[in-house]
Specification:
Strand order of the largest sheet: 8-10-11-13-12
Shape: rod-shaped
Strand content: 15-25%
Order of helices and strands: HHEHEHHEEEEHHHEHEEHEEHEE
Number of strands: 13
């Protein structure tokens, strides 16, 4: 269910839903309009057929002598017979009258009335009481309907007009008025396939497939642009986006590439500026150090040297921060456990209390120097401010996690995120005597971002501070 929700929250899902609903509504509307037109044409054709039948009888009666006319309607049948004396006329059929009026001729002014179905059988056939009872029986009525139509129950795939009987009142050319009854047989037409179950299923599949294909096609450039933006955060020197496709996509790709070039130029310029400042400061700092050595007051001389040392450390860390943003270093496959073990061994050789426990056996595609600086900073912070460092790496499904824990006092909860901001120091754990400008964790987070990882701090339940570096989908 969460996957479905996430799909419809995406641009692809929303375009898919809009296209599917829009095409479904359009298909239903088109089917209704088509069905209405087909029904109207069917009714028109059916009326034309009935009008043909009435016109034939009208011309026939008008063109034979008056004494012959009664003999034409002796036999029973649904075609055209003399009207029974007790026949009752029903509602006027204005539609059929309008068709006859448009044709002209003898039947142009005929009166057409609906009547009961049995009216279309001769009075002789219904004269006797016994035959009348037989006629009114259910079996005869069903047999009559079957005889008049091709089927008593037309299949559901057809649209049918059942047998009907009409009373026709004609005024012939010689002034004689004749009434006769005319019956029509079943009228049938095939229903639209869109209203059949198979047609509905096929239409729904076609709409869903087309909507999904169009949605994927429409959002593919956006997905490519989103992926490029995410990759740009980790690798500023990534290849530029290819410029192709519609005008809007080409313009977006060109703007993205221009932005990437500007960021690259800005970063290079910033790094050069900081490097130049650091280089130019080395000479005056050296002169200051030499002059401080000539100060006679030992206490004053020591304070001045300490301030000078802190100034140099601040400059060095600022330059390190600028260099950490440089993404020119290529990625290589690196054994994470080997790197961590070597860093811990170097710390132990330097006299620090550090150990490495557990291993993930993960081989990651990272920038080796940036990764080394990342864990060096975390390891040095743990040793400097917590007295010891316990390093471990482990794998959780697709994630790789490295933990660096110390046994110091930890941090207040409100400071766990703030210490990643530049120049933020925690007085009780980072005094001037221990050095540091408040850039170590800032550099660590930046280096982690460049390697596709995240860094978080938390207070361990057994005491001390724990830094966690996580790769959720390691390359």
């Amino acid at each position: 269910m969460s996957g479905v929700r996430s799909f419809f929250r995406s641009m692809t899902g929303r375009i898919f839903a809009m296209l599917a609903l829009g095409m479904a509504a359009a298909a239903v509307f088109a089917a209704i309009v088509t069905s209405y037109i087909a029904e109207r044409d069917f009714q028109r054709q059916w009326l034309e057929g009935a009008a043909d039948q009435i016109e034939v009888y009208s011309v026939l009666l008008d063109n034979v002598p008056a004494e012959i006319r009664p003999k034409l309607f002796v036999s029973a049948g649904p075609g055209g017979i003399k009207l029974a004396p007790d026949a009752k006329a029903g509602q006027r059929d204005a539609a059929l009258e309008s068709v006859l009026a448009a044709r002209g001729g003898v039947s142009a002014h005929a009166g057409i009335y609906h009547s009961a179905l049995e009216t279309c059988f001769s009075s002789e056939a219904r004269a006797s009481e016994e035959l009348r009872k037989v006629w009114e029986s259910k079996e005869v009525r069903q047999a009559l309907e079957l005889a008049w139509g091709t089927r008593s129950q037309p299949p559901r795939r057809t649209r049918s007009v059942p047998p009907q009987c009409r009373i026709v009142e004609l005024r012939l050319s010689d002034g004689e008025v004749m009434k006769l009854s005319l019956g029509t047989i079943w009228g049938e037409r095939e229903r639209s396939p869109l209203f059949q179950p198979t047609g509905i299923v096929l239409l729904a599949l076609a709409i869903v497939t087309l909507a999904y294909v169009v949605a994927r096609f429409a959002t593919r450039p956006l997905i490519r642009l989103s992926d490029a933006a995410s990759e740009l955060g980790q690798n500023l020197d990534r290849p530029p986006l290819p410029v192709h496709g519609p005008t809007e996509l080409r313009q977006a790709a060109q703007a993205f590439n221009a932005m990437q070039k500007q960021l690259q130029d800005h970063l290079v310029e910033r790094t050069r500026m900081l490097a130049a400042i650091t280089h130019d400061l080395q000479t005056p700092l050296t002169r200051l150090r030499l002059r401080m050595e000539r100060v006679d007051d030992p206490e004053l001389r020591e304070r001045l040297v300490t301030d000078l040392r802190e100034m140099k450390a601040l400059i060095d860390e600022g330059l390190e921060l600028a260099r950490s943003a440089d993404t020119a270093e290529p990625r290589v496959r690196l054994d994470l456990d080997s790197l961590l073990e070597s860093l811990v061994e170097d710390a132990v050789d330097a006299g620090s209390d550090a150990s490495f426990v557990g291993g993930s056996r993960a081989v990651l595609s990272v920038r080796p120097l940036a990764t080394r600086r990342l864990f060096s900073n975390l390891l040095e912070n743990a040793v400097k401010y917590g007295g010891s460092a316990l390093v471990s790496s482990e794998r959780h499904g697709q994630s790789v996690v490295v933990r660096v824990r110390d046994h110091g006092p930890g941090l207040p909860p409100e400071m766990l995120e703030r210490v990643f901001d530049p120049f933020v120091r925690v007085d009780r754990s980072r005094s001037r005597e221990t050095g540091g400008a408040g850039l170590g964790l800032t550099i660590a987070r930046m280096l982690a971002d460049r390697n596709g990882a995240t860094v978080q701090l938390s207070n361990h339940r057994d005491g001390g501070l724990e830094a966690t570096v996580r790769w959720d989908q390691p390359a």
